[in-house]
Design a protein that fits this description.
This is Class I SAM-dependent methyltransferase. InterPro entries: SAM-dependent_MTases_sf. The chain is α/β, with parallel strands linked by helices and about 270 residues long. It has one domain: 3-Layer(aba) Sandwich (Rossmann fold). About 35% of the residues lie in helices and about 25% in strands. The chain contains 8 helices and 10 strands. A 7-stranded mixed sheet has the order 6-5-4-7-8-10-9, with helices on both faces. Helix 2 (about 40-50) packs antiparallel against helix 5 (about 125-135). The radius of gyration is 18 Å and the shape is globular. The model has no long low-confidence stretch (mean pLDDT about 90).
Length: about 270
């Protein structure tokens, strides 16, 4: 179901961009009825609630896409983007995935047996929020105080407590949150997020009471720049090989930075073999 759902989201994005005439900085498209994706009705309502209570989005309107009515949320992330790069230990600026994409990632995590999602560099908390909506424990670790403040406002207004934590993920004590079957989402595209990934994975793998092999999810790219240091495994080959990780699943989904591109963003699920 997750693969067909992911393809449907990609198709929805492509159809929307063919007709989009807005000049807003960011867009989100979410169906108003659950039939298009056979999505749980309550969970769909909660996806809309996230957008409605997120100050990134300044307005919304309805548009019929793929024979179904959708709501288009639009706004601007520039202020949060600027805030996110002011920290010395912030390795990746705030670039959000689509809300629907975050929901698919949460469903995929659940199907892989995850009990907790820990979103490293959680931004406005959308992955952790969707994880909580689908019934998983979730934590959003974010270093920027303004983004954490936004996350906390979303928690208060939606009543979905995805546990926002303001911390440097490279120094955070992961034993403090009692992990059993964790999946870690690591923000940052190839090369940009490499230092964050190396520090976080090293810290997690050195935990003395780690009883299961954690799953790490990377945000990759289908198209490598000519000057890319690592063109293997969606740009993450060196990190994946260094930590002896097995690729167990990849899902391609829309993100903020691929809206005007024909090829979307691959998310690479890997499991430690140590």
């Amino acid at each position: 179901m997750n693969e067909s759902f992911a393809k449907a989201v990609v198709t929805l994005k492509a159809e929307f961009m063919k007709r989009n005439e807005s000049t807003s900085h960011i867009y989100e498209v979410i169906p108003t009825l659950p039939e298009l994706f056979s999505i749980d009705k309550h969970e769909l309502e909660m996806l809309h609630k996230f957008a409605e209570n997120n100050s990134i989005y300044s307005d919304s309107y309805e548009m019929k896409i793929l024979d179904t009515v959708c709501k288009v949320y639009h706004g601007d992330v520039n202020n949060y983007w600027l805030d996110s790069i002011k920290h010395d230990t912030s390795y990746a600026p705030f670039y959000p995935v689509w809300i629907l994409s975050a929901y698919v990632l949460a469903l995929q995590s659940k199907s892989l047996g995850a009990e907790q999602i820990i979103d490293i560099g959680s931004g406005d908390g959308r992955i952790a929020y969707c994880a909580k909506v689908t019934g998983l424990q979730s934590y959003g670790i974010e270093i920027d105080e303004n983004l954490v403040s936004l996350e906390k406002k979303i928690v208060l207004s939606t009543k979905i407590d995805f546990k926002p934590i303001m911390a440097d993920a490279t120094q955070f004590d992961y034993t403090s949150i009692g992990l059993s079957q964790p999946i870690f989402f690591i923000s940052g595209l190839p090369e940009v997020g490499e230092m964050l990934a190396n520090n976080v994975i090293s810290r997690i793998m050195s935990m003395p009471d780690l009883k299961v092999s954690p799953i790490f999810v990377f945000t990759g790219s289908h198209i490598m720049r000519k000057d890319s240091r690592d063109k293997s495994k969606w740009g993450w080959g060196q990190v994946i090989d260094h930590f002896k990780l097995d690729v167990i699943k990849t899902i391609t989904l829309p993100t903020y930075w691929t809206l005007d591109q024909p090829i979307d963003t691959p998310f690479i699920f890997t499991r430690s073999t140590i």
